[in-house]
Amino acid sequence: MRSLNKSSRLRFVTLHTKTAFLFAVGLASIIFSSLFLTRYFFLYSLNELENIEIHRASSQAYAVIDSLSVRQEEASHDWAYWTETYDLLTQSDTGFEERNLYMESLDSLGLDFMSFINSQHEYVAGLGRDIEDPNAFTQTLLKDKGVAQHLNKMKRVLDSGKSGTYGLIREGDDIWVVSVTPVRNGTSEAEFAGWMLWGQHLTDRFPSDFVGILTAQNSIITDLDETKHLDEHIHEEGIDEHDDIDVFHTDSELYHYTSLTNIYGEEIAVLKSREPRTYYQKGESVFYYLIIAIGVVTTLVSIVIFILFRNNVGKRFSYFEQDIKALISSDEVNLEGHRDEFERITTLVQFLANNSSKTEGKLKDTLQKFEALYHSQTLGMVLVVDQMIVDVNQTLLDLLGYQRSDLVGQHVETLCAHSSDSICSAEQLFINLSQGLRQFEAGLNNGYGETVHCVIEATQFEQDDKMAVMLSIKDISEQKQQAVLIDSLTHRDSATGLLNRPTVINLIKGFFQGSDQEQNYSIVYFNASRLKEIDEVYGHLVHDSVLKHLADNLLIRFGDEFTGRISENEFLVWCVEKDYRQLERMANRLLESYSSKISVSGFEFDIGLKAVFVRSSSSFANFEDFSYVGLYALTEIKSTGKRGLVTVDESLIKRSQESLALNRDIMKALKSGEIVAHYQPIVHASTGQVVGFEALARWRHPTLGMVSPGLFVPLAEQRRLIVELGEVILEQACEFISDIQQKSDSSSQNRMSIHVNLSTPHFHHKSLVETLVNLIEKYQLLPGQLVLELTESILLGAEDEIVERMEAIKSLGVQLALDDFGTGYSSFSSLCNFPLDIIKLDKSYIDNLDVNDKAKTLVRNIIHMSQELGMTTVAEGVETASQLRKLNVWNVDEIQGYYFFKPMDKHQALEKFAK
Ligand code: C2E
Ligand code: CA
Ligand code: CA
Fold it and tell me: Any idea where the EAL domain is (predicted)?
């Protein structure tokens, strides 16, 4: 039971842990096995090296022994062919022994034994180291198989052909190097006398005499049994036998055996060479440490790899496992009894494959339902089942430039564009659907990697318990582009390309509201006062070129984000507060460049550019105050004609705030009767008798006191209250003249007129004629008693209509006067075309009478020509006796001016003139 639990627990070790573990173990075993393989080959090579070495050492030792025999044989010839030796054997010269046979001779020849035998092999003389009986030893040597065989052979050979022999001889446990040399007469080879035997005691001399030159430890083994039983020896001592039969090794030493043979060819001893296995042992211990070191490192690396693999790569396996588990847990597929994930996946895939053919069949049914829609020429259709695209119609392929195979079988996300200006995601699509949103806009990817703006309508239905969605798609990128174009048209002024007024106002308002207290703004207002005049004189084309000249300069200096056109001839530039000094500098430079005339379309123009600089400050409660002060300052400098940049200061702010207050209060003032007419008498030039009055509007402001019409009339014009104002004054004036008429004696000669200023809008106002009819009726005004003063600007426009209107007014018995004559642009000749009764010469002419001769000529002629045309002339603003004198000389009809009377209120006028 226990073991079963354990094994099943092992089976459920997660796949990613298992994989990581196997990966780490695999890596470790690769490293270890390659390490052991390397060790084997390395040690094998060392072994081979050592074999070569021992071979070499052994050959060297053998060569030493061999060279001993050869050298001994060569040396023996000297003695063998020596006459004295010859004599010893032939004449029994006993003196030879005394002269030559002593130990020093042996030492000098490197010998241990020397003897001479005659041709019958009888001992003649001899000497040996540690040998008591040289004769006996000689006999022993002669009995040696090899020597005996040679000498026997030589018996049958002619003396001249007799040769010696040499080699090893074994004598008991001793090995001797022996040479047998024929002794001859030193002059002729044919003279053979006997044999000379030399010997070296090899076992005594080798290897002790040669230790210095031999690389291995060598020894001569005479116990042949020992070598014969080498096999047993090997097994007993655990010696390894090498391929080369002569080499053997234990763990610590290496042996080589070379057999030594005697002259006869029999093995008499073995040369044993022995070397310690230094390389092998060193190599083995190095490997031992190497394996320990690499073992530790490999274990650590394996652990790290196990952890990393399990955490990184393994994580993905684990998600995969989870998904698989989720799939498996659906009860449709029975996956019980499968060993691991892969078996379960296989089963699952088989199940899905079986199922998909069924699904396909059902799908076809669905597609039929949408058949009609699919043939749509205008709508792209996409069928999505379980978020996968199952079908698309041709229109969609044409619309987005895809091949069918690009889309079918892909996730619906393939269509979604993730560009900066449009975000679409499949996730969002299904969120929208779940919220009941069926139609929405989205950017879709087309086949060329671009984004196409589309309107998508989604229809959701069930398809075999799966969620299916039919998407109908319409390209709206053209509309979008148009929207962008419209947007630019609505935000920019078409003539200059600058931002238009509403945009500028919204932008600055936005800054004002959005900004914190530190982030203030500065604004420069520009006014090109002469643009209108240029338009009237040179025509639209030239005007537009001049306008463009200015707009381009503004754009170059201030950039298109911060520059706007706020009216016909007014422009605005703004910047954040920190850059205000630069803005001020640049505005000054622009003004400078327009201070002299500019050349456009072959003409030279002064556009009358003026500018006001305003900084947002705590004095402004809101944006309206802020923007108002600039425009107010502009209207102020327009009248002063001041050039150069005007910086708005505290006093200007105060004045503008007053103006703003007037602006705010004017409506109420009109209703509540704060605006009243004052009256300035007009006198007959030659008699000085008052012939009429001009009604001049006054505003008795509760806090600001008496306000001049110069301030509030333009305000009323802007606020479209000028008609109301006109009607208030008109009514008061008619009442006044009627009062004064009733109170004075109503003889026709003393009939006085009342002049009322009529604004352009009022002149054109549809109810004007009706109002006049009512007033004349109400106040019983006589013909000619009411005079309406028109300005020259009224005369600009469609001439026929104006004349017709004038005639209509005149038909009521109302006279028409032209006010401020000479300040506008109408030429004197054009006056003839209008049915005017009175001409009012502007004060500026009168002011110039005392100083300017040209003004005199002009005024004199105007008076003269007016009279010619049957019009009455009135001189305005007469302040001095000298002016009056001149005007009288030229027969001006009437005078209005401080010289006679200043304007006065109704009561004063009534008191003074109602007699
Ligand atoms: P205006 O029609 O040319 O009126 C004459 C202006 O000259 C008046 O100024 C008058 O007070 C002033 N004046 C008259 N004689 C002299 C003089 O000898 N010396 C000086 N320095 N000034 C003199 P006011 O009343 O300030 O009116 C200014 C302008 O306001 C008028 O010029 C007129 O254009 C406009 N205005 C006044 N009342 C009305 C009105 O009821 N309706 C309309 N539409 N405009 C009005
Ligand atoms: Ca007037
Ligand atoms: Ca006037």
Answer: 659-915
Determine the structural domain holding residue 629 and report its residue range: 493-648
| Cα(696) to centroid(ligand 1), Å | 6
Cα separations in angstroms, 855 against 252, 332, 531, 845 = 142, 111, 27, 6
Q: Give tens-digit pLDDT for 69-112.
A: 999 999 898 888 888 888 888 887 668 888 888 888 888 888 99
pLDDT at 881 over 90: yes
**Is the domain of 605 the same as that of 747?**
no
- For the residues 19-28, what does the mean pLDDT come to? 84
**634 and 696 share a domain?**
no
Cβ-proximal residues to 556 (8 Å cutoff; 6+ apart), any chain: none
- Judge if 619 and 683 occupy the same domain: no
Assess contact for 199 and 178: CB atoms under 8 A. Answer: yes
Write down the pLDDT at residue 335. 62
Per residue in 797-837, pLDDT (tens digit) is: 788 999 999 999 999 999 999 999 877 766 676 678 899 99
Given the DSSP bridges, would you call strands 422-423 and 690-701 parallel, antiparallel or unpaired? unpaired
Q: How many domains does the chain have?
A: 4
Measured CA distances, 683 to 245, 501, 790, 885 (Å): 162, 48, 20, 14
User: Do 617 and 714 belong together in one domain?
Assistant: no
Q: Tell me the CA–centroid distance for residue 789 and ligand 2, in Å.
A: 6
Is the distance from the beta carbon of residue 823 to the nearest atom of ligand 1 less than 6 Å?
no
Residue 519: pLDDT above 70?
no
Question: Going by CA atoms, what residue is nearest to atom 16 of ligand 1?
Answer: 877
Alpha-carbon distance of 202 to 72, in angstroms, equals: 12
pLDDT at 730: 97
Q: Are 498 and 466 in a shared domain?
A: no
| Residues 710, 819 share a domain | yes
CA 658 to centroid of ligand 1, rounded, Å: 21
pLDDT at 3: 44
Which of the ligands is closest to the CA of residue 755?
A: 2
- Please, is 213 exposed, middle or buried when counting C-beta atoms within 10 Å of its C-beta (0-12, 13-18, 19+)? exposed
Ligand 1 near 708 CB (within 6 A): yes
Question: 842 C-alpha to center of ligand 3: Å?
Answer: 6
Give 419's pLDDT tier (boundaries 50, 70, 90): low
Atom of ligand 1 nearest to the CA of 729: 41
- Asked if the structure places residue 13 within a domain, the reply is no
